[in-house]
Amino acid sequence: MKTVFVTVGTTSFDELIETIISSEATQALKARGYGRLVLQVGRGALLPDADSCPNIRLEAFRYKNSLAEDIEQADLIISHAGAGSCLEALGAGKPLLVVVNDKLMNNHQLELAKQLHVDSHLLYCTCSTLTETLRTMDLSVLRPFLPGQPQNFANFLDKALGIK
Description:
This protein is of the alpha/beta class. It has a single domain, classed as 3-Layer(aba) Sandwich (Rossmann fold). It contains seven helices and six strands. It has a six-stranded parallel beta sheet with strand order 3-2-1-4-5-6, with helices on both faces. α2 (23-31) runs parallel beside α6.
């Protein structure tokens, strides 16, 4: 069964969780052949139960010692735009859709997502465009982000954030 793994890291991003479990988003996932949705909700107020999504098999948790197994089992990862979460997903070679939290002030996440998108490593959107992005996304355009090169990633972050 094709699986989507959603992660918000250690943050709270209830808007992403609300949006991804909406009937519109789950129908879009189902139409693309996904049958299982695994949510890592962090410290958010929402912890949906399995019955929240009649269109798709749902599992949700707050934290685990490691997300490696969830990432490995995923056919698509949807993540907040935190650098650590992006790096972990990209390092695993999984298709990544980043949802930028446009409610954050001085949003460095947007610059990171834009640059990784320009380099064809991920797709990105906001919560308001997530469902449409799920309907229209073309994962075949994504190129691998070569793991094992932490200095390249550090240089990339510096560039994306305008430090260098």
